[in-house]
């Protein structure tokens, strides 16, 4: 078989040597546009897990690479002139030039032909039974078949520049520096006994504020040397065609077409902050060779390769996206104390959580526990022993919630079991403020004295447990059958009742069209909320929550998808908030000042044209100013046309942003199923409470 490989980077060379070793009769030629020995960048990083796959793929190359490795087992975080160290982080570094030289020598030894300074101008002129596009993110081979591969690029919002330095770090080091120009960070790691990689990154505002957008290469070096002088310790920075750029994430719809296949950066990229680019490229090569060896035909082999690799890479890309988002917004976390800042950084991508870090370095996590306990106790004395963060109390106004776990109890009769779970906070399900506010005839309410007495009896059986009631009005989602049957199925004629909403938009095609509320409707509904709050206090609830999400009445005012008004209650976010804030103010005036009020808020509709995160931050700030103490983060369900994104922390980054931008306590929701998840969220300052979903 004749194989043509375009690109002599790690992906192209590693594929070539692996396939030539497995199929010595194969005729493999590699075309590389650069001269031999020319390479950009400094060092590359591998985890211990990656090395196992290298050992199994080609032991000789593995030994040669390992012999040149610099190995470290800790991460240092330099922040506010403190250095925090977390051990158990085993990584290895090697010079990119050394790695390429080793792979090149092994290719030559096995009989692979490598032609340097051979640029491919005419892709149509390439011949071979298989053409491997390993020519990087700007792949000419891929772009010649762009309609088949369907590449998609997304640019990052920060700027970064890649340097080297003769300061040999003994760990992977993150350094953060603030000055009058902005906030900057460096990613540094050793890759041989004499040099280290030193990447400087900052947001656009800091980059421009420092004049780096118009400075020369020498001016950039001088600025960064002065800024990170404590970390460089008198050493200089070196450039290798270094430029300030934005990271581009690449995804391809397909990774193969006819006899052409993509590997490495031609197929995908992942942000450098998780150190996976070269790893992913070489693992692509392993997977492609394995597929070619086990499948009888080329189409079957290339399909097998894509099916095996693409989902794995996409998981890495999602982790890299989370990490990239963190580094694009580090300014948001400047208020955090060093230990919390460091924990937040280490757990940023979702791949490492509280339990992982405890296994790797129990001393670091123990320090986080002790700091957290001292911080909530409002004392300068740090305890010698402390429980994990989820067991620390949370004080909202005068009410102390004994721990950071919340659970749900939909109805009065379910409160007892929920209280026995040990959770610090029990939240009711949606409780209607009037008969017309119900979702279905089965929806619990608190608009009569009898209902109030029923809730009161249930609460008396669980004295000592903090319980919150969620008051809501169904809006356009009312008058439906019980959700034990189906969701949002309207009641039949004679069973239903009139509906109200911000605009006359039916929730589903079969749903009743609601009446767009006028001033009289608003006054009536506000009074319903106030009366319900009065009954809730008499019943003995500790916290009151207003539901402003999921397409219900108050949420329908906030979302531009459901608020189509042209009067003073529609338009910009500040106007869409007017009526919900009016209800909050009225309820706050009725509810005891010493007890907290929360809001369940949609921070995203997961639909085009819906609520944006900046809108949600603005809403959170306004809610805080009007007396809200806690926001429970929700998303989706504003309309039926929403596309959710699910993972273990799928709503946590919303809670994180509201907490750290709007400065308000948040309750994280989503697929939080373990105390480990909750510890990761709370210790990192992403939320103050976590709603645990029972398994």
Distance between the termini: 53 Å
Derived from helix and strand composition plus strand pairing, the structural class reads alpha/beta
Overall number of strands: 28
Q: Radius of gyration from the CA trace?
A: 29 Å
pLDDT averaged residue by residue:
94
Largest sheet: number of strands, sense, barrel closure: 8 strands, mixed
Would you give an account of this structure?
The protein is 36% helix and 22% strand. It is an alpha/beta fold. Among the domains are: 332-377; 393-691, TIM Barrel (Alpha-Beta Barrel). It has an 8-stranded mixed beta sheet. It has an 8-stranded parallel beta barrel with strand order 19-20-21-24-25-26-27-28, surrounded by 5 helices. Strands 6-2-1-7-16-15 form a 6-stranded mixed beta sheet. The longest helix has 31 residues, at 298-328. It is globular and about 90 Å long.
Brief summary:
The protein has 695 residues and is α/β, with parallel strands linked by helices.
């Amino acid at each position: 078989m004749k194989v043509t490989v375009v690109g002599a980077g790690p992906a192209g060379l590693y594929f070539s040597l692996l396939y030539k070793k497995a199929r010595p009769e194969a005729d493999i030629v590699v075309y590389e546009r650069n001269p031999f020995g020319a390479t950009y960048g400094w060092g590359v990083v591998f985890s211990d897990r990656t090395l196992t796959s290298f050992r199994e793929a080609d032991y000789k190359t593995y030994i040669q690479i390992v012999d040149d490795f610099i190995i470290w087992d800790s991460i240092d975080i330099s922040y506010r002139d403190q250095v925090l160290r977390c051990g158990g982080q085993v990584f290895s570094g090697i010079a990119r030039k050394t790695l390429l030289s080793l792979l090149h020598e092994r290719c030559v030894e096995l009989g692979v032909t490598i032609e340097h300074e051979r640029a491919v101008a005419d892709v149509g002129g390439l011949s071979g039974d298989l053409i491997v596009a390993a020519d990087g993110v700007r792949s000419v081979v891929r772009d010649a078949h762009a309609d088949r591969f369907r590449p998609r690029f997304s640019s990052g919002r920060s700027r970064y520049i890649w340097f080297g330095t003769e300061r040999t770090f003994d760990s992977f080091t993150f350094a953060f520096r603030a000055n009058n120009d902005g906030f900057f960070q460096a990613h540094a790691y050793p890759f041989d006994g004499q040099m280290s990689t030193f990447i400087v990154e900052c947001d656009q505002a800091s980059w421009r504020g420092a004049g780096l957008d118009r400075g020369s290469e020498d001016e950039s070096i001088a600025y960064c040397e002065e800024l990170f002088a404590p970390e460089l310790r008198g050493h200089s920075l070196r450039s290798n065609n270094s430029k300030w750029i934005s990271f581009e994430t690449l995804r391809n719809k397909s990774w193969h077409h006819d006899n052409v296949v993509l590997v490495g950066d031609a197929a995908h990229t992942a942000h450098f902050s998780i150190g996976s680019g070269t790893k992913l490229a070489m693992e692509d090569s392993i997977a492609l060779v394995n597929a070619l060896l086990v499948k009888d035909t080329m189409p079957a082999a290339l399909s097998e390769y894509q099916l095996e690799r693409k989902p794995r890479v996409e998981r890495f890309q999602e982790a890299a996206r989370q990490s990239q988002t963190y580094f694009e917004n580090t300014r948001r976390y400047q208020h955090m104390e060093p230990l919390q800042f460091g924990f937040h950084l280490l757990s940023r991508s979702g791949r490492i959580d509280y339990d992982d870090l405890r296994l790797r370095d129990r001393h670091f996590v123990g320090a986080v526990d002790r700091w957290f306990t001292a911080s909530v106790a409002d004392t300068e004395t740090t305890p010698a022993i402390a429980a994990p963060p989820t067991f620390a109390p949370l004080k909202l106004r005068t009410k102390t919630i004994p721990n950071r776990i919340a659970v749900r109890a939909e109805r009065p009769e379910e409160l007892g079991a929920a209280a026995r779970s040990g959770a610090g906070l029990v939240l009711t399900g949606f409780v209607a403020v009037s008969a017309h506010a119900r979702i279905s005839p089965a929806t619990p309410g608190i608009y009569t004295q009898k209902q109030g007495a029923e809730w009161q009896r249930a609460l008396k059986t669980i004295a000592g447990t903090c319980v919150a009631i969620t008051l809501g009005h169904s809006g356009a989602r009312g008058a439906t059958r019980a959700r034990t049957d189906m969701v949002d199925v309207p009641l039949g004629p004679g069973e239903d009742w009139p509906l109200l909403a911000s605009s006359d938009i039916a929730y589903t095609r079969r749903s009743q069209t609601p009446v767009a509320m006028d001033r009289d409707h608003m006054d009536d509904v506000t009074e319903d909320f106030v009366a319900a709050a009065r009954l809730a206090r008499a019943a003995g609830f500790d916290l009151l929550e207003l539901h402003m999400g999921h397409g219900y009445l108050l949420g329908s005012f906030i979302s531009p998808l459901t608020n189509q008004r042209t009067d003073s209650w529609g338009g910009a976010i500040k106007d869409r908030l007017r009526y919900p804030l009016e209800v909050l103010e009225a309820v706050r005036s009725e509810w005891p000042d010493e007890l907290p009020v929360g809001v369940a808020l949609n921070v995203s509709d997961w639909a085009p044209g819906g609520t944006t995160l900046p809108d949600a931050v603005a809403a959170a700030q306004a809610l805080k100013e009007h007396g809200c103490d806690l926001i429970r983060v929700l998303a989706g369900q504003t309309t039926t046309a929403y596309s959710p994104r699910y993972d273990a922390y799928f709503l946590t980054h919303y809670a994180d942003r509201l907490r750290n931008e709007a400065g308000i306590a948040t309750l994280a929701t989503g697929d939080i199923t373990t105390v480990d998840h909750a510890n990761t969220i709370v210790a990192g300052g992403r939320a103050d409470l976590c709603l645990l979903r029972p398994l």
